[in-house]
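I hope you will forgive my troubling you with a question about protein structure. The full record is reproduced below for your convenience:

——
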Amino acid sequence: MSTDLMPNRYRPGESDLPRRESELIARRDAVLGASYRLQYRRPVHFVRGEGMWLYDPDGRAYLDFYNNVPSLGHCHPEVNAAMAEQAGRISANTRYLEPKLVDYAERLVDTFPNELDRVVFTCTGSESNDLALRIARFMSGNEGVIVSSYAYHGTSAAAAAVSPNLGDAVKLSPFVRMVSLPGPAGVPEAQAADFFEAQIRSAIMDLNRRGMGIAALLIDSIFSSDGVWVDPPGFIASGAAAVREAGGLVIADEVQPGFGRTGAYMWGFERHGIVPDLVTLGKPMGNGFPIGAVVGRRAPMEQFGATSRYSNTFAGNTVGIATADAVLTILQRDQIPQKALAVSQRLRAGLEEIAKQHYEVRAIRNAGLFFGVDMGPEGTPAAGWRAMALDVVNAMRDDGVLISTTGANEDTLKVRPPLVCQAEHVDLFLASMKRALIKVAG
């Protein structure tokens, strides 16, 4: 496992930078907290965005194959118009009657299975996961939470405490148990469900023995931070059933796989054939505007709400609702998930062709427009895999294409372009990746 909290970052002295950027970094370092880090060995400096593209001060365009938050692309004009129009009228909170709030809530829950028919709005995915954990602990009367071994679920105190991805200095809650995934463990797909269920039952048993009990299984159904271990579809279902059997709730963190990212489904959990108790949403919901939500079953939502106060002034504000409503309208009207699925098939085929020519590509995994590409040839040290992945990412950055890395060893390329990606963008990406591999591997 990589011990560097952000291996793909700028380190002073490692790169020669133009005066404009070096002076800006100096000013930044003099005023911002040390937790901030700049991505890439040579930091990128952007002044505007449009669709799939980001532009630096000199007008150079960078193809964005990394940012899932602007799900409909940067600065979508229709989304921005809805945001501006509402901001010009009124920005109010959920304590006042507002038809658009109810209209959007009805539209949103209609995209979910019938069992999930209540929504509470938040500002971020972190807040959504924080609230979902509160509801699960209230309903179950227990404290224990099960997560995957390298999961990331947010930055609030409660979410960070269930996010092993954040590093050893961020202490996990003593109520947390981590489970291994079948893919990284090398378990054959035919045995994946049994392996995952066994991990879950063992974690439940330990929590019960220590008097904590199980409150929730919290999973990102695309397992992004673990390295995009998406297959086989359905492998989490029996583990989820074991959690319910023990009195816990199933929480699906849909911040990354949701809103059509997987192409075939609106929500990532649907790919696994389950209906969770609670679903958490984040900023892709508003194309980057700070809005999120918890969607859930009626019973836990009503019982929690009847006895516990959740008051969040900014959450569900009318500007955020108008923005999110525009995003959902465009997704449905323009059939964005279906188009994204078709584009993902082109990207998959192109990556497989590259893998035939470059043995440095060890494996390819995807669900719709979310790809994990393992780097480094079999039989070489894991540190070499990580170094190669980082070299490829930075070679592509220098070529004007943005991606990043993921996984416990950071040796997996994380490729997740905005959902408006088109065939021509895929071809540009593939050409850049070929150039990067030639540059890095020789």
Summary: The mean pLDDT is 94. Residues 1 and 409 are 4 Å apart (CA to CA). The first helix runs from residue 19 to 31. The two ends are 26 Å apart (CA to CA).
